[in-house]
Amino acid sequence: MISSLNYQRLVYRYGRCLVLILIACTLGCRASQILFPEIDPGDENWLTRESAHFYIHCRPNSEAEEDMEEIAAYLDQKFTQICEILDVEYENKISYFIYSSAEDLKKNVSQETWGFAVGEYEAIGYFYPTMRQYDSRLGGLGHEVVHIIVYWTMGVRELHFLDEGIADAIDKYSLQWSRPPVLWAHWRAALVMKRGNLLSISQLSDNKFFRDLRYNRELYHTYYLYDQCGSFVRYLIDRYGIEKFKRFFPAAKEDSYQAAFQNVYGLSIHDFEEDWHEFLQDYLTSGPSNPSTSEVWHP
Description:
Blueprint: H1 4-27, H2 31-35, E1 47-50, E2 54-58, H3 63-66, H4 68-86, E3 94-99, H5 102-108, E4 116-118, E5 123-127, H6 141-153, H7 160-171, E6 176-177, E7 182-183, H8 184-194, H9 201-204, H10 207-214, H11 217-223, H12 225-240, H13 242-251, H14 257-265, H15 269-286
Parallel strand pairs: 2-3, 3-5
Antiparallel strand pairs: 1-2, 4-5, 6-7
């Protein structure tokens, strides 16, 4: 049975496709160019491998082709893990386009990005091998998968920082650093706070501010933007569980996120922000805590 949320997504998707096809026919342009503009419609240089949950497209003679079996197994495992953490069911297969490098991706897509997820088309673009900050060459491939599953099971994002926060928190939920081990997102956020660069929730919830900072690579690394968001969301879910976050996520809008937080959690988001700051202040010295809801991250 199709849920009401998925029904709305399907109506939106196919209604939009029909309109765009009519426009394409009227203008005499290629339908694929406007139906899926993130992928170059003339780029047909792909090999395809179907896995349990994905259609994986990679460049011929690339490192991704050489490691395809490992990539497919990793993505399928990530898919299952994400659904278990979010406590959702998702049955469709996702199209995953893996470029041979970050430069290959940037050269062939219509936006300045390191990777992207197009929710309504269940499609992802990323590159392989991935960024060095992860614990393996596969790290980072799961981030965009979170976006797709969240879109279809929790709703369209209203606040960018929550959308990137949940993706960062889940993708790196067990990624550890240093000895004794600390969780990556909390460690990064604590360091940023120590340097005086931790952004306020009021700043993060301003979508224009967030977008401008995200696409400024120098400032992005000054603030470690996604890790700040991931730490906030991880701490929020560790404290109060995933179900409350699933209620808060679609209700949190730029002009009403404070009221939405109060309604779902029964306290001010700024009071919680202070609690999160105290947690980060202690984190580098005391290491990770073990809140009572931590099992949500270890299904």
